What does this fold into?
Amino acid sequence: MSDSLNIYECEDLKRHIEAKAELNEGELTDEDMQAIVQAQTSSMEQLTKLIHYVKFLEGFELVAKAEVERIQARRKTAANRIEGIKRYLLPYVEQRGGVTVGTHRLSTRRSHAVLLADGFNNPQYGDTVTLFKPDKKAIKESIQNGIEVKGAVLEERTNLQIR
It folds into this structure.
């Protein structure tokens, strides 16, 4: 078996994992995942299939992320076009007092919007929001330098790398 990714070599594994996941709302339980990994590490050939499947999923994750970004950009473009069309239709509809086109009725309505000056800061008309965001890098450096940080500990982890 070569080291190159071949999805057909792990297709059975993929089907098995997806079938198990469907039984649990699309997720695998820890027990299921542990059983699958144990079964796939029984031989080098099985381990190779498991690694190929992981690489396949990593590629899928990258493609899915790019697709989400592409769809979000298209949604924003569509929203901007809608706003532009409505902005240019507004004077036309206002001038005619309403327009009926087929089954669609175009009309206007009045509304009010609050515009705030830059730096508006009147506590009577707002909520104060305080956000605490821990600086994990500084905490890590302090603990490594022997400084005790109450409520924080340094945990050593072992991460798997597949190259």
